[in-house]
Amino acid sequence: MNRVIELRTPREIEQMRPAGAFVAEVLTDLSERVRVGTNLLEIDEWAHEHIRRRGAESCYIDYHPSFGASPFGHVICTSVNDAVLHGLPHDYALADGDLLSLDFAVAVDGWVSDSAISMIVGDSTPERREADLDLIETTEVALAEAIAVARPGKRIGDISHAIGRVARAAGLRVNTQFGGHGVGRTMHGDPHVPNDGAARRGLKLRPGLVIAIEPWFMAGTDELVTDPDGWTLRSVDGSRGAHSEHTVAITDGDPVVFTARG
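Structure for Methionine aminopeptidase, as requested:
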């Protein structure tokens, strides 16, 4: 079956900017407010307050894909330590040294943006802190390298290869089951953007293509296990995970990073 890849006009690209700026603003605010003792449900409520004030629409609260046990029911993903994706907010107070990833997607005026950020909460042992910072930095470097090749004439495989190359250089294995995706009027669309792949393969990048690029890695494995909540994905070996993501538009010139922070 042929998949429809939607391309946005220059006018539509401009219309998508406010959603990206809002997502970036919310993630910046939340990352500055998080402290030791902050409950994951508080973070969800803070994000919900932002959405209400802006008149935005959550992409998560009613989200119910085939792999989800039920509608997500919250407005942000909060993944802690060995949880790396789809972390369902629950009654948990963050502790010293926790590695927290926040993933947030909303629609503003009908246009979606999606972004993720990882951080260390409070203090940690020097060894643990160094390892966690290295893991977070690896996702951020992979994201930057992928964005750098997101230009007309390149292919999805070039983006995937850039991410995988950074991961392999850091000694990490890559799971390609979950990755980046098309973004537009809905949160998840075609094309799928794996976090590893062959350069010069796949869909050719054209101006107007908008995608979320999201490297996520786990320190000791590439295998996931699903929590009993039916959503939270954890490393099968208990190793920690980190996640970085931006929504990016391919243009005739430099890529536009809608969700750039600061």
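The radius of gyration is 17 Å.
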